[in-house]
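Morning!

This is the sequence you dropped in the shared folder:
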Amino acid sequence: MDKEIKVSVIIPVYQVENYLERAIDSVLAQTLKEIEILLVDDGSEDASPEICDRYARDYPDLIRVIHKQNEGLGLARNSGVQASAGAYIAFLDSDDTVEPEMYQEL
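The structure's back. Tokens below.
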């Protein structure tokens, strides 16, 4: 990634195929453009890993995916933190959304 990353948005993913696209789309709609999205697939057995991979293919300069075995929410977040490049870290639950100005105002 050539751009400066101000905020790394870490989204832990586990069995959320019905909500995941909505969460990711809300981050893609941010007014702050100096962000990266880290999707941490924590061993999901539903369609979540495929959804993560599709978004990473569609947005290769913005989204990265970490696939790992299931170890729980805390370790999934920690994996995202270790891989992050941003000056700041933000967490978003995979079944939640953020308003478009969230990270700009933060």
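Headline: The longest strand covers residues 35-42.

More detail when I'm at my desk.
O.
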